Amino acid sequence: MKKNLFIFLGILFFVTVQKIVASTPQDFLWKNRLIVVEESKDIERQMKVFKDSIKGFNERKLIVLHYPKVLLARKKDFALLGLDGTIKAQSNKPFTEKFLFKLIDSMPMRQSEINSQN
């Protein structure tokens, strides 16, 4: 059941945000910010936050990738990667929309994006 829910939410999110043709975080460098979700018991809760925040994700160029923990060799279940591919935040608990958007909106590149839209 959990796997099917994740697949459904993941497909819904990916289709809504953009077509995904790449398969590794490096494929998104300088194009998108990434939320890497590793195997976790809280995956459904995190995906609900993502599903409910599609407009904000689009504005911030956010994409969600799911990898087994062993592939990324991280100790945390959730990570936010910036446009440059560096880790901006990590947690063992799901990120909240408020936390993600506040953190991203405070970054210089995001400030530049906001200013160029105005």
Question: How does this model look, in words?
Answer:
With 118 residues, the protein is an alpha+beta fold. It has one domain: Glutaredoxin. It is 46% helix and 18% strand. The protein is built from six helices and four strands, in the order H-E-H-H-E-H-E-E-H-H. The chain has helices spanning 2-17, 43-51, 54-59, 69-72, 97-105, 108-117; strands at 33-38, 62-67, 78-81, 87-91. Strands 2-1-3-4 form a four-stranded mixed sheet. Strand 3 and strand 4 (87-91) form a beta hairpin. Helix 1 (2-17) runs parallel beside helix 2 (43-51). The radius of gyration is 14 Å and the shape is globular.
From the coordinates shown, what is the CATH architecture? 3-Layer(aba) Sandwich
Number of DSSP strands? 4
Summed over residues and divided by their number, the pLDDT gives a mean of: 75
Strand content: 15-25%
Distance between the termini: 45 Å
Q: How would a crystallographer describe the biggest sheet?
A: 4 strands, mixed
